[in-house]
Amino acid sequence: MSDRLNGISVFVTAVEAGSFALAASRLHLSRSAVGKTIARLEQRLAVRLFHRTTRSLSLTDDGALFYERCLRALEEIRTAEMLLESGKQQVNGRLRVSMPVLFGRMCIAPLLTSMAREHPGLELELSFNDRVVDLIEDGFDLAIRNGTLVSSSGLVARRVGDHRMTLCAAPEYLLRSGEPKTLEQLAQHDAVTYMRAGVVLNWTLLDACGKEQEVIPK
After folding, report:
1. Residue 91 in this model has a pLDDT that exceeds 90
2. Residue 108 predicted with pLDDT over 80
3. C-alpha span between 106 and 198 (Å, rounded)
4. pTM of the full predicted structure?
5. How do beta strands 142-143 and 199-200 pair?
6. With contact defined as beta carbons under 8 Å apart, do 38 and 11 qualify?
7. pLDDT tens, residue by residue, 15-47
8. Which residues contact 151 (CB under 8 A, 6 or more apart)?
9. Using CB atoms within 10 A of its CB, is residue 135 exposed (0-12), middle (13-18) or buried (19+)?
10. How far is CA 159 from CA 39, 52, 86, 109, in A?
11. Burial (CB count within 10 angstroms: exposed 0-12, middle 13-18, buried 19+), residue 21
């Protein structure tokens, strides 16, 4: 198939150039290579494509018919390549994304809506929730989550960045209960925590040595 396509492109170039010598120059081949390619093409088709003289080159009736069909085929190939190239630049279709409520609204949604404005053919369906979702069962194309990645069940997972959190307390509370100096003291303080599936999530913090430690708030 590769040889056939190569022969056709050489044939079309020779027709448009009007001579084997000029076709060879355009294709960066030798005149002999062009002539041999045309000869093999004629042998395979069992027809004569050109009337050749020392001064001119013209198509036979079969050659003219073949040239017309080859031109259409090459144009179809060029059109197909252009369609594929334009498809790479434009995003189309529906994208269903699950993301945490706060992080999704503050950080992810603005990025996705900006991308949707650049690609009018993209339809976004955003789901804001903090529960663990089953991408296949729930029909999501993408899920974005904070924290340590658990088993991904064979799905592709990628770390997209770091999200740091800070512990805060009201000044009145610290005056009343004191300021914790260690993780052990922190565990004795009242706290606002996250809950998932009815379970209170522990805090994961870094100790003085930079190691992760879990703190179980009251």
Report:
1. no
2. yes
3. 25
4. 0.48
5. unpaired
6. yes
7. 999 889 999 999 999 999 999 999 999 999 999
8. none
9. middle
10. 58, 66, 29, 18
11. middle
